[in-house]
C-alpha cells in the first residue's frame, strides 16, 4: 500500500509542477516529498505524503516558517503549502510529518540553497512553475455584459442546452444548440409512427369505416 | 372500389418516412453525444473549453530557451489583433500564493510576463497575465474571452524579433478546481507555447475577485524579424 501511495503522491507532484521524481525516487527519498526540493529562503513549498491514514497531518521542519497543515488531495494522500523562513541558512533540513496526532510518522528533507545560486537553477524552470490562479480583475465590468457574463453563460451551457432541447421546434429553427434538432426529429418520427400504428389498430378493429374517417383528418 | 389501395399505400409511405426521420434524429443525437463527450473528457475541471482540432504545424522554437540568457529575447509587447488587444510587457514574478503577479491596477494597460518561465518563442511555456478590468473600467485583457481557437497572438521581443502563436485552446478554469499543470505546463513536449491569463467566471463582490481564470493557450507557428 505504501509504495502505491508514494507513487500517487509523486504523480501529483509532477502534475502540480513539482519535482521530477519518479515513483521509485519518491519512495527512496522517504515518505514525505517537498516541492521544490531545492529552495531558497522565503520560497513557497508544497509538502505531500501518502503514509497517513487520517484526513489531517502537519509537517514540521526547522526550515519552515511555520508547521504546514496538510489536507487530503484528489490523489488520496495529504498535501499542504508552506514557506521557507527568511532566516533559514543554506543546508539540508529534515522534514517530519505527524499524522493526526502520531508524532514523526514520516520523514523527508528539503535543501535550502544560497540565494545567489538562483539564476543557475532557474534554468530548470519547471521547478518554479506557478501553481495558483491569477488575480487579475477588479470587478469594475462585472455587471456589464462583459466577459464575466459570457463565462457565466458558458458555465450554464448544459442547462441552457437542456432548456433549448425542451423548446424543441423553435430552438431547432433558431440555429439552436446541439441536441435540439435530433430531439425534434426523434420525437416527431416516433409520434407519427405511433399515430399510424393506432390508426391501423382501429382500422383492423372497426373495418373500413374507421380508416376512411381517419383519412379525412 | 378504386379507393381501397389508397388508404393502404399512404400509411405505408407515412410509416417509412417516419422511420427515416426517427433514424436520422437518432443518428444526429448520437453524433452530438459523441462530440460533447469528447469535449467533456478534455475540459474536466473547466467550465468551458474551445479547442482547435487541426491547426497549422508548430514552428521550431527560437534558441535561448533558458531564462537568464540572451538579454534581447525578453518580450516587449503582446498583441492579439483579432480582438484589438495590444499592450506593453513588464517582467513579473510569483506572488506569495504561487500565482504570477499581475501588473498593478494603476497600470492596467500593461501585460505581465512571468520571468521564471520560458522566453516567448523559446521551447517551453511563456506565461502572460493581464487584468480583465479594474474597479472602474475594462483593462488590457478585457476582450481576451473573445479570442477564438485559430486566431493569432503576436509577441514582439526586445531584440525586434516577433513570435507568432496560434491559439489552440480557450477555457475558463475555476479557482476551486485549478489544474496548474494544464494552465502553466507544456501541452506538447518540444513546442514553444504561450499562455495568456486573466480573470474569468463570475465576480464575487465579497471576495473582491472572480471565481476563475480565463486561459488562452497557443503554440508557436511563425517567427519573424520585423
Would you identify the regions of chain A where 5 or more consecutive residues have pLDDT less than 50? 1-29, 117-127, 144-153, 162-178, 207-217
Question: How widely separated are the two ends of chain A?
Answer: 72 Å
Can you count the beta strands of chain A? 8
Here the CATH topology of the largest domain in chain A equals Immunoglobulin-like
CATH 2nd-level architecture of the largest domain in chain B: Beta Barrel
Q: How would you sum up the global shape of chain A?
A: elongated
Low-confidence stretches of chain B: 1-7, 34-46, 65-69
Q: Under CATH, the topology of the largest domain in chain B is which?
A: Sortase, Chain: A
Average pLDDT across residues of chain A? 66
Q: What class, by secondary structure content of chain A?
A: alpha+beta
The fraction of residues assigned to DSSP E strands of chain B is 25-35%
Find the count of extended strands of chain B (DSSP E, 2+ residues).
9
Radius of gyration of CA atoms of chain A, rounded to a whole number: 31 Å
Helix content of chain B: 10-25%
Oligomerization state of this entry? heterodimer
Largest interface: A-B, 57 and 84 residues
Give the number of domains of chain B.
2
Total helices of chain B: the number is 2
Under CATH, the homologous superfamily of the largest domain in chain B reads Sortase
Protein model, in words:
The complex is a heterodimer of chains A (217) and B (226). By secondary structure, chain A is α+β, with helices and mostly antiparallel strands. Chain A folds into two domains: 2-128, Immunoglobulins (Immunoglobulin-like); 156-216, no CATH class. Chain A is 40% helix and 22% strand. Chain A has eight helices and eight strands; from the N terminus they run H-H-E-E-E-E-E-E-E-E-H-H-H-H-H-H. Chain A has helices at residues 2-15, 23-29, 118-121, 147-155, 157-166, 168-173, 180-206, 208-216; strands spanning 32-35, 38-39, 44-49, 57-60, 68-72, 78-83, 91-99, 102-112. Chain A has an eight-stranded mixed sheet, covered by helices on one side. In chain A, a hairpin with a 5-residue loop joins strand 5 and strand 6 (78-83). With 226 residues, chain B is of the alpha+beta class. Helices cover 19% and strands 35% of the residues of chain B. Chain B contains two helices and nine strands; from the N terminus they run H-E-E-E-E-E-E-E-H-E-E. Chain B has helices at residues 5-42, 180-184; strands spanning 46-51, 75-80, 85-92, 111-114, 124-129, 152-157, 162-174, 192-204, 209-224. An eight-stranded mixed β-barrel of chain B has the order 2-3-4-5-8-9-7-6. The model of chain B is unreliable at 1-7, 34-46 and 65-69 (pLDDT under 50).
Amino acid at each position: 500500500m505504501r509504495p502505491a501511495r508514494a507513487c500517487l503522491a509523486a504523480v501529483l507532484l509532477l502534475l502540480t509542477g513539482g519535482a521530477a521524481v519518479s515513483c521509485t525516487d519518491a519512495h527512496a527519498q522517504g515518505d514525505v516529498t517537498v516541492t521544490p526540493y531545492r529552495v531558497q529562503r522565503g520560497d513557497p513549498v508544497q509538502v505531500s505524503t501518502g503514509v497517513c491514514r487520517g484526513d489531517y497531518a502537519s509537517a514540521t521542519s526547522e526550515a519552515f516558517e511555520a508547521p504546514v497543515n496538510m489536507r487530503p488531495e484528489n490523489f488520496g494522500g495529504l498535501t499542504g503549502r508552506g514557506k521557507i523562513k527568511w532566516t533559514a541558512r543554506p543546508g539540508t533540513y529534515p522534514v517530519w510529518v505527524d499524522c493526526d496526532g502520531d508524532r514523526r510518522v514520516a520523514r523527508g528533507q528539503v535543501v535550502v540553497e544560497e540565494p545567489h545560486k538562483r539564476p543557475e537553477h532557474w534554468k530548470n524552470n519547471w521547478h518554479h512553475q506557478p501553481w495558483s490562479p491569477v488575480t487579475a480583475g477588479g470587478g469594475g465590468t462585472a455587471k456589464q455584459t462583459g466577459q464575466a457574463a459570457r463565462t457565466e453563460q458558458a458555465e450554464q451551457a448544459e442547462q441552457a442546452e437542456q432548456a433549448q432541447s425542451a423548446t424543441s421546434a423553435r430552438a431547432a429553427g433558431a440555429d439552436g444548440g446541439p441536441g435540439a434538432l435530433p430531439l425534434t426529429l426523434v420525437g416527431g418520427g416516433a409520434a407519427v409512427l405511433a399515430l399510424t400504428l393506432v390508426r391501423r389498430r382501429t382500422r383492423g378493429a372497426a373495418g373500413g369505416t374507421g380508416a376512411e374517417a381517419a383519412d379525412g383528418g | 372500389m378504386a379507393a381501397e389501395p389508397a388508404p393502404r399505400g399512404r400509411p405505408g409511405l407515412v410509416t417509412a418516412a417516419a422511420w427515416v426521420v426517427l433514424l436520422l434524429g437518432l443518428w444526429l443525437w448520437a453524433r452530438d453525444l459523441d462530440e460533447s463527450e469528447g469535449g467533456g473528457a478534455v475540459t474536466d475541471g473547466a467550465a468551458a473549453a474551445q479547442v482547435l482540432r487541426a491547426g497549422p504545424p508548430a514552428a521550431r522554437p527560437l534558441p535561448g530557451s533558458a531564462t537568464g540568457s540572451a538579454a534581447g529575447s525578453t518580450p516587449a509587447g503582446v498583441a492579439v489583433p483579432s480582438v484589438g488587444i495590444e499592450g506593453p510587457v513588464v517582467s513579473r514574478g510569483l506572488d506569495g500564493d504561487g500565482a504570477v503577479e499581475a501588473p498593478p491596477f494603476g497600470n492596467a494597460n500593461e501585460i505581465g510576463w512571468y520571468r521564471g518561465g520560458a522566453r516567448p518563442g523559446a521551447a517551453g511555456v511563456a506565461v502572460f497575465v493581464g487584468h480583465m478590468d479594474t474597479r472602474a473600467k475594462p483593462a488590457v485583457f478585457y476582450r481576451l474571452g473573445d479570442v477564438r481557437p485559430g486566431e493569432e497572438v503576436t509577441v514582439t521581443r526586445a531584440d525586434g524579433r516577433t513570435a507568432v502563436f496560434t491559439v489552440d485552446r480557450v477555457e475558463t478554469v475555476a479557482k476551486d478546481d485549478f489544474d496548474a499543470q494544464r494552465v502553466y505546463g507544456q501541452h506538447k513536449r518540444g513546442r514553444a507555447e504561450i499562455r495568456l491569463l486573466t480573470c474569468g467566471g463570475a465576480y464575487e463582490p465579497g471576495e473582491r475577485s472572480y471565481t476563475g481564470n480565463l486561459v488562452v493557450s497557443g503554440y508557436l507557428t511563425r517567427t519573424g524579424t520585423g
